[in-house]
Amino acid sequence: MSHHSAVGIIGCGNMGAALTENLVKSWGADRIFVFDNDTQKQNALERHFRVRGVSGLDDLVDSCETIIIAVKPQDIDTVLDVLKGRWDKLVVSIAAGMTLRYLSARIGSRVPLVRAMPNLNAVVGASMTAISCNGAVAEPQKETAARVFESVGSVVFIKEELMNAFTAVAGSGPAFIAYLMDDMDSETVRDIFVKEALAFGFDPAAAEFIVDKTMAGTQKILQNFDRDIFIKRVCSKGGTTEAGMEAFVTRHKTAEGLSEAIRAACRRAGELAKI
Ligand SMILES: NC(=O)C1=CN([C@@H]2O[C@H](COP(=O)(O)OP(=O)(O)OC[C@H]3O[C@@H](n4cnc5c(N)ncnc54)[C@H](O)[C@@H]3O)[C@@H](O)[C@H]2O)C=CC1
Ligand SMILES: O=C(O)[C@@H]1CCC=N1
């Protein structure tokens, strides 16, 4: 994608806002379009970051070559309907659990489609993002997707089979790390995350890279961010992090609690695929 093309963000919530804030720095505010059916949230981004608001989904799709879907999995179908058959676009979904297969079935397998999982450390440019692509994504479009997420942190391309596991470790992980910060030493936290990532099937180098970036990003954001507010924002309603955090209720701030939180988040990602 040339620097002249536009990126549209659908959903101006926790993640949509974090992506917008950082994309303006690399892309320029006049090339970022935003839409949320909650007009207050959309207006807030327009005001704060001088990005362009539009009045509807169709409008956004027509204005942009790359479309980022940042709504909750439970709300995604309305958005997918508008993208049906739009093979002239690059569609990027960051919805937890939603598979390329499901998304492609709804918008058409010829539509270039990226499943990505960033994390809220994107707010301070320290996201750890994973990307998987469907067969319609051409090489330059892979580069575009990588550039979008490199503007908010680090990027790895992974097999889609590992995406739910990645979502648990790196997507929800920041909330678990923040929650345990004062009660478990960071070496122990790291060891548990790496152990769970290996059990999910990541190779050792990838597991360590992903965990180290996620921990460093979380430490960075918490220097200037209230911990409880941060945890709440990572917890999308009905999502993977919420499911993980429940593990601590019975297991408390223990190693076993953290392992179970990571596994429960991964299981919830699998359930979201079926809604
Ligand atoms: N919060 C996080 O740390 C992360 C979230 N995600 C994913 O990002 C997505 C969004 O999560 P959050 O930002 O936490 O949720 P959120 O609830 O804060 O934001 C979602 C926004 O989408 C809007 N929306 C709903 N239906 C819409 C429609 N048809 N058109 C336009 N806007 C619509 C809502 O009004 C809301 O403002 C989810 O799919 C989640 O799995 C991914 C990585 C990390
Ligand atoms: O809790 C959730 O469902 C989202 C996905 C990863 C982080 N937040």
From TrEMBL:
Residues 7-97 form the Pyrroline-5-carboxylate reductase catalytic N-terminal domain. Keywords: Amino-acid biosynthesis, Cytoplasm, NADP, Oxidoreductase, Proline biosynthesis. The keyword Oxidoreductase applies. Its main location: cytoplasm. NADP(+) binds at residues 10-15, 70-73. One of its GO terms (biological process) is L-proline biosynthetic process. Its EC number is 1.5.1.2. Gene3D superfamilies: NAD(P)-binding Rossmann-like Domain, ProC C-terminal domain-like. SUPFAM superfamilies: 6-phosphogluconate dehydrogenase C-terminal domain-like (SSF48179), NAD(P)-binding Rossmann-fold domains (SSF51735). It comes from the Bacteria. It catalyses: L-proline + NAD(+) = (S)-1-pyrroline-5-carboxylate + NADH + 2 H(+); L-proline + NADP(+) = (S)-1-pyrroline-5-carboxylate + NADPH + 2 H(+). It is found in: Cytoplasm. GO terms for molecular function: pyrroline-5-carboxylate reductase activity. Pathway: Amino-acid biosynthesis; L-proline biosynthesis; L-proline from L-glutamate 5-semialdehyde: step 1/1. GO terms for cellular component: cytoplasm. It holds the Pfam family F420_oxidored. InterPro entries: 6-PGluconate_DH-like_C_sf (IPR008927), NAD(P)-bd_dom_sf (IPR036291), P5C_Rdtase_cat_N (IPR028939), P5CR_dimer (IPR029036), Pyrroline-COOH_reductase (IPR000304). Residues 160-272 form the Pyrroline-5-carboxylate reductase dimerisation domain. Catalyzes the reduction of 1-pyrroline-5-carboxylate (PCA) to L-proline. Belongs to the pyrroline-5-carboxylate reductase family. This is Pyrroline-5-carboxylate reductase. The gene is proC.
